User: Which sequence fits this backbone?
């Protein structure tokens, strides 16, 4: 259907699964292998799916209650003693309520703390704006020593969690609430700090993270029907950023669309733009939440209303191609 | 300017201003309706929190239909009392109380958490008339109320300020920052109410991170501490009276409640903290509450 | 000396004054005019210079003690009752310790709270990394409804504080600790939401905020001696961003250097880059703190060591001009 | 592995591992030297905090030269006790105690807050050997120590954990989150110490935001509360002994101190919280402490 190679090809019907489940499962597997793994939660065991770990390893599970600041620093103390603590709460609270603790105690000391931020993005749905975390990328990227991964599906979240445990230093993991399409498989390659080329293309590059990777792949299909070949990058690691890949995409395709379920200011789009203007300036368009708070609604309704669909990626691609060709 | 108080029998609609001062009997009847609203709107939305709203139903009703000096028709009436739920997740009762009191039509309850309604999952000042400050992140509400109380002091305004908190929420350090502040400034225009239902998301509060002895904590932060049976309207009114009369200290009322109170299969079960009843469960619940989904949803749609 | 007009011209010896003093003085003048002005502080009256207000209007001054989260929400409650609260603490704590409160209670409700974040930047000096706030721009820009101003000197801080009071909605003001050059005067124009063209130029544009505006002006002089004319923009308002001006500078000068005393990820440079790639892509170079924590030292030593001097701006200008001319 | 304890008379250098168990007399003498270090390094740096370090000097000395089981030559000795100053601004005494105990040469004190030294304005694990967790933002340290205490429990390690807090710092809500956590998990390997000097930056703690009754607060959070004269070494050792002996609860020691203690013109004056003595003031202070800048700075430079 498209002339270009694609490592990821989507069937018409894609399996749906929660990213946070990949987190929960990975923690159990990590716990089996490594006694240093400890898990902390702030009264959200089920919704962050650390309950799997809690059942399997009660002696290494710490219930902190509703006290995110405390949880962040307790994790720091555990890390200082050689443990590999994973803490879990909603992303809004992991990134904002405990931001000072993440900056001073965890990041400045460069402690081996892993932060699991659930419920990222507008797709959180009915809970509404307060629970739809969409500022984490901006906040975490600004803090030195922090790493950050925004996996695109169940399997990638599983691998990202394993990779986070391997990486020495603080890592923030962002995942969502809903079932989302499983676009990768157990053996799709995943390298911490590198973007993955999910599909080749010449005319532009779509760089996406999280659930938007699926929308990007669907957009690529739609574009292909119009004879446009879009390269699709799964940029799961937001920090450290795969600058070489981004520069290469700018040079080779001359136009970039970024797609993220996050505020437009300082998110994936901003991160990519920072690399592009310093290496090889090309036209870019951003598919993101346009600096507004979320609201209640069904996840699907919100993804539509906030312009986070394949069709929005297609529209952005057409805009950026117009600019590329100077029309 | 509307009168500050009026005799119960003046009041036919809830749209009147001032304190309604309803008696315990009348409040008990209204609390039953509030519970019916909660179950009905949750059944309709199929998303939202059941447990906390039901434990707050009785003292919440006393707050809105007896204690508060408000004018739902004019939410920004300058002489209003200030009320705030720091536990933003209990929107089912917040909206039910607001609608029954006249802030907006009952039918809006049937659009709880809906894309095309104003009734957000957590209280949004931007969306719902009468919500003054948005909430949803626990532990922040008492601080907000401290600010409102300080404003009233600066303006020498007799306004009273009521803040509803959760018991699990007591684990948030910011609560204790606000407690220390209010104790220091002796904010006796401030009344905190704790929905002491002994449950939170992951289980029993005392198993998660114990907050007992809670009364000692608040006393050590220089607050006047009152306790009441959070499901006995007469006892709740007694506590409100004592709080109003206390000078020189803020007052906190520990309202001993039962999560999910009023619905047999929800009562005292933490697993009902954050989920709605399925339609068939809602039907059973509404039967227990003396109505049916058909009857009560119709009342709401018509209201 | 330079062919291009310049609204700001620096004498060899520039007067030095603290930006935070402009904040302190403006609060007193605001207090005189408007009884709704209330000031809160977190046990830092002298160093945030709200002590002036405290002496003049004790009944409208609220000491909150060491409780930044509480302070942010108390300010929200005051604003909900029609007051215009200004809160003051160090930027590290205003932006990080109270981030969740800023996001949910203040910004989501869109309350009229003014946040004074002192001690921004590496020039904070001997206190070291924890007290050198360099993440505020990234954090505040990501939160909807927030506005943000990073004034360049005493007078601009004074005007920014007055403007913040006039603006309906939450505003974050960032200022520094040390005496910094006074480059503007009492009657230099200041418009909230607009960048100011401090000096004209054809070859490139230097967009700066905070104390880096002075370094940019000095850099312009050095460049002028080599026959390079640099436009200098004082982009004091980081949010809302003066996109039209940024786009115009990209089109007219074809190259941009940004200069900020802030982390490079998601700061001024990132904000400008986001506009540039979406409007008129041109080469950019960033002068900023390169994603590392600060340290103790004399302010001057640190500005040198972290590459935040006119010479660094000049070097960046030369790099960007090379790229502009395709060499 | 080094011995856990050793008789005072074994110890000539401070480089030995284990508990030094010095007696009150010897500690009193060492505390005087610590105060001389503090004034000298501040005089040299001309930046930094005087008040808190001086109020911490006596119990700080007791902690490092009697109580703690550490090996300064091997800061990561697996059997070490864990110590942490949540009040990161008191680096003058932290570094003085560390240098005198042997973590690094005394001469490093003369590069306090200097660009080319490791002694950062606030403790930095990245820069200073022996600092395990960086600090500087108040209210976070007790939580860190809770994590260390939980790690010891998981590992069944007898390590003891000591956390020094400020009294103004008690206003931070996170302290009470940590207090609630430690009380809930009965972390009896954890000992909190509060420098109760009754001052903070803007003035008297009780004028800023009162923390009294502080003992009642900690008791209400399920801690064992001890009080001592923070300048009487014998009384401090008594408190340490009792804390060590207490099972089933964490212990907090309210060390009643005087800000700026030891220097007449600094004593009990909050304005000395955050500033260093000018050279001439330092000279006066050092005379009061029985030395001179010339003499003591030479000792440090040689050490
Ligand atoms: C800061 C913050 N952390 C976590 C949550 C998620 N959360 C919502 S309700 C809740 C439990 C609250 O317990 P309680 O106060 O007892 O309310 P109840 O369960 O009794 O309704 C939690 C952890 C939140 N909303 N805000
Ligand atoms: C979170 C945070 N807020 C504010 C500050 C600024 N600050 C440093 S020390 C201090 C006063 C601390 O008082 P106290 O604990 O009594 O220490 P002491 O003044 O007695 O040394 C303040 C407000 C800080 N370092 N961290
Ligand atoms: Mg509860
Ligand atoms: Mg003190």
Assistant:
């Amino acid at each position: 259907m498209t002339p270009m190679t694609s490592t990821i090809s989507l069937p018409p019907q894609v399996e749906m699964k929660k990213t946070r489940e990949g987190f929960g499962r990975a923690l159990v597997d990590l716990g089996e292998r490594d006694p240093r793994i400890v898990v902390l939660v702030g009264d959200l065991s089920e919704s962050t799916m650390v309950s799997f770990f809690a059942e399997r390893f009660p002696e290494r599970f710490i219930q902190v209650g509703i006290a995110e600041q405390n949880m962040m620093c307790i994790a720091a103390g555990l890390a200082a003693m050689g443990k590999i603590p994973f803490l879990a709460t909603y992303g809004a609270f992991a990134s904002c309520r405990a931001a000072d603790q993440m900056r001073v105690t965890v990041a400045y000391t460069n402690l081996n703390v892993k932060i699991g931020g659930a419920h990222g993005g507008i797709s959180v749905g009915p809970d509404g704006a307060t629970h739809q975390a969409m500022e984490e990328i901006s906040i975490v990227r600004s803090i030195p020593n922090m790493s950050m991964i925004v996996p695109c599906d169940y399997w990638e979240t599983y691998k990202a969690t394993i990779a986070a445990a391997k990486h020495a230093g603080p890592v923030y993991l962002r995942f969502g609430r809903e079932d989302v399409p499983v676009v990768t498989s157990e053996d799709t390659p995943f390298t911490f700090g590198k973007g993955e080329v999910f599909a080749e293309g010449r005319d532009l590059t779509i760089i996406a993270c999280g659930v938007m990777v699926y929308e990007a792949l669907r957009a690529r299909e739609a574009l292909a029907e119009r004879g446009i070949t879009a390269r699709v990058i799964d940029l799961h690691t937001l920090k450290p950023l795969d600058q070489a890949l981004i520069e290469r995409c700018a040079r080779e395709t001359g136009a970039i669309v970024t797609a993220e379920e996050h505020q437009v200011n300082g998110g994936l789009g901003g991160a990519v733009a920072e690399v592009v203007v310093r290496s090889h300036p090309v036209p870019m368009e951003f598919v993101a939440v346009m600096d507004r708070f979320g609201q209640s609604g069904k996840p699907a309704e919100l993804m539509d209303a906030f312009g986070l669909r394949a069709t929005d990626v297609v529209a952005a691609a057409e805009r950026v191609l117009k600019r590329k060709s100077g029309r | 300017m509307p009168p500050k108080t009026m005799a119960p029998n003046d009041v036919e609609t809830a749209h009147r201003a001032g304190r309604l001062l309803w008696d315990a009997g009348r409040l008990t009847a209204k609390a039953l309706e509030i519970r019916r609203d909660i179950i009905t709107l949750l059944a309709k939305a199929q998303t939202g929190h059941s447990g906390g709203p039901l434990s707050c139903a009785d003292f919440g009703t006393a707050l809105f239909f007896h204690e508060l000096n408000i004018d739902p028709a004019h939410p920004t009436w300058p002489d209003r009392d200030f009320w705030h739920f720091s536990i933003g997740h209990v929107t089912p009762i917040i909206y039910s109380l607001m609608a029954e009191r006249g802030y907006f039509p009952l039918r809006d309850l049937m659009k709880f958490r809906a894309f095309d309604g104003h009734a957000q999952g957590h209280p949004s000042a931007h969306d719902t008339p009468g919500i003054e400050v948005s909430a949803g992140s626990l532990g922040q509400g008492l601080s907000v109320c401290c600010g409102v109380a300080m404003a009233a002091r600066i303006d020498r305004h007799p306004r009273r300020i009521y803040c509803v908190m959760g018991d699990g929420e007591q684990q948030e350090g910011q609560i204790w920052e606000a407690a220390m502040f209010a104790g220091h400034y002796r904010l006796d225009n401030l009344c905190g109410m704790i929905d002491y239902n002994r449950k939170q998301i992951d289980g029993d509060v005392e198993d998660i991170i114990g907050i007992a002895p809670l009364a000692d904590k608040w006393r050590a932060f220089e607050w006047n501490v009152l306790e009441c049976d959070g499901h006995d309207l007469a006892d709740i009114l007694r506590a409100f009276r004592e709080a109003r009369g206390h000078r020189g200290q803020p007052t906190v009322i520990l309202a001993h409640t039962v999560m999910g109170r009023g619905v047999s299969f929800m009562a005292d079960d933490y697993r009902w903290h954050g989920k709605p009843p399925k339609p068939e469960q809602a039907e059973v619940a509404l039967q227990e509450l003396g109505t049916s989904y058909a009857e009560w949803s119709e009342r709401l749609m018509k209201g």
About this structure: Chain A is about 40% helix and 20% strand. Chain A has a mean pLDDT of 97. The first strand of chain A starts at residue 16 and ends at 18.
